[in-house]
């Protein structure tokens, strides 16, 4: 995977399963991000649309069989939390979280997850 931004996996995944910052989000403003999982022979590529989110407000937790994405969206003018994205997805293949890479650009988070074993290819919409 060609990483086009300076974002490192450690910066994006610094939360390790914690909820995103901004727990003062008004009740009822929780959203489920649109997620697409592309299965390649040696890896899974998880893409999530996180509109209105800054890189530092994204938390991703990856285990061999699951990915959890959480992020806080902020109001563009007031810079206050305006909503929370959160989604947990069972992965279609077992991955190696320790070798994962991620970057965030223009509202799209992309996480590259190498598989433990090779397999077939396909696209999974969640």
Keywords:
disordered N terminus, 9 strands, Immunoglobulin-like, 1 helix, 126 residues, 3% helix, mainly beta, five-stranded antiparallel beta sheet
**Approximate helicity band:** under 10%
Q: Roughly what is the average pLDDT, rounded to an integer? A: 76
Largest sheet: 5 strands, antiparallel
CATH architecture name: Sandwich
Number of strands: 9
Q: State the low-pLDDT regions, or none.
A: 1-9, 14-23
User: What is the approximate shape?
Assistant: elongated
CATH class: Mainly Beta
The SSE string, one letter per element, is HEEEEEEEEE
Rg on CA atoms, Å: 14 Å
What structural class do you assign from the helix and strand content?
mainly beta
CATH topology name: Immunoglobulin-like
Total domain count: 1
Largest sheet strand order:
7-8-3-2-9
Structure, described:
The protein is mainly β. The chain has one domain: Immunoglobulin-like (Sandwich). Helix content is 3%, strand content 48%. The protein is built from 1 helix and 9 strands; from the N terminus they run H-E-E-E-E-E-E-E-E-E. The strands form 2 sheets. A 5-stranded antiparallel beta sheet has the order 7-8-3-2-9, with no helix packed on it. It starts with 8 loop residues before the first helix and ends with a strand. The relative contact order is 0.30. The model is unreliable at 1-9 and 14-23 (pLDDT under 50).
